[in-house]
Design a protein that fits this description.
Order of helices and strands: HEEEEHEEHEHEHEH
Number of strands: 9
CATH class: Alpha Beta
InterPro entries: Nucleoside_phosphorylase_d (IPR000845), Nucleoside_phosphorylase_sf (IPR035994), Pur_Nuc_Pase_Ino/Guo-sp (IPR011270), Purine_phosphorylase (IPR011268)
Protein name: Purine nucleoside phosphorylase
Largest sheet: 5 strands, mixed, barrel
Radius of gyration: 18 Å
EC number: 2.4.2.1
Low-confidence stretches: none
GO molecular function: purine-nucleoside phosphorylase activity
Number of helices: 6
CATH superfamily: Nucleoside phosphorylase domain
GO cellular component, one term: cytoplasm
CATH topology: Rossmann fold
């Protein structure tokens, strides 16, 4: 990781019209509908952006978009990167550093996750209050990390309290169910065993997924306020576990997403 690489990525995007975005948004698996809300969109495919990784998951489209939502300039990642695609932590989080260099002041993250807390149901959304990193590494564990920020980063409150409160208020006003809880991030791509689901519950996780935590760690490194929402696409009950149906997960994400879009649009309007 060098500043020169970031500079080249940012210069390319600025040449395409990505100028002074205020909010960065990362869209998770099956969650692409927010891009329909972008006014006057400009897009850059990942394979054209210098030093960007490529999204290899079939339901991740792989482009960065710039435009306006609710009168605010945003840059949106449609398709993110995962460790399970063979990328390392620096690859996975590189776009966050690029969006920060472009000028974003806040970061919104979404993901699809499985519900460990059995009070939560398939199709619910969960506001992430805290997380457990079970991915076996850190995006800050590289030699020259101090060129980009402090080596030792405080994670006592990784998700912005003010934006969380606002999202809760918005959900209440709009009659949208928004659970709250702890997100556990694993490597994947295999789903969990019954014993692993039991372990996650003992550890205090309310939901489990394969993303988000590396991006959140880097955002905290950059002192970038974050809010993150999981769309709960399946119920992980170890006593009644059914074989995974990826198509159903994508369908549940698609059906729930309009509610997430409403929350994010209103939050953009209010901040």
């Amino acid at each position: 990781m060098t500043q020169k690489l970031l500079d080249e990525s940012v210069a390319y995007l600025r040449s395409k019209g990505f100028v002074d975005p205020e909010i960065g948004i990362v869209l998770g698996t099956g969650l692409g509908q927010l891009v329909d809300e972008i006014e006057n969109p400009v897009e850059a495919h990942y394979n054209h952006i210098p030093y960007f990784p490529l999204a290899t998951v079939e339901f991740h489209s792989g482009k960065l978009l710039f435009g306006t939502i609710e009168g605010t300039q945003v840059v949106v990642m449609q398709g993110r990167f995962h460790l399970y695609e063979g990328y390392d932590f620096l690859d996975v989080t590189y776009p966050i550093r690029v969006m920060h260099q472009l000028g974003i002041k806040k970061l919104f993250i979404s993901n699809a996750a499985g519900a460990i807390n059995l009070n939560f149901k398939k199709g619910d959304m969960m506001l992430i209050e805290d997380h457990i990193n079970l991915q076996g590494g850190s995006p800050l564990a590289f030699k020259n990390v101090t060129e980009f920020g402090d080596r030792f980063v405080d994670m006592s409150e990784p998700y912005d309290i003010e934006m969380r409160k606002k999202l809760e208020e918005i959900a209440k006003q709009k009659g949208i169910t928004l659970q709250k809880g702890v997100y556990a991030s694993v490597v994947g791509p295999q789903l969990e065993t019954k014993a692993e689901y039991r372990m996650l519950k003992i550890l205090g996780a309310d939901a489990v997924g394969m993303s988000t935590v590396p991006e959140v760690i880097v955002a905290n490194h950059l002192r970038l306020p974050i809010v993150a929402v999981s769309v709960l696409t399946d119920e992980c009950d170890p006593d009644n576990l059914e074989p995974i149906n990826v198509q159903e997960i994508i369908e549940v994400a698609g059906k729930t997403e309009p509610k997430m879009v409403k929350l994010f649009k209103e939050l953009i309007k209010q901040i």
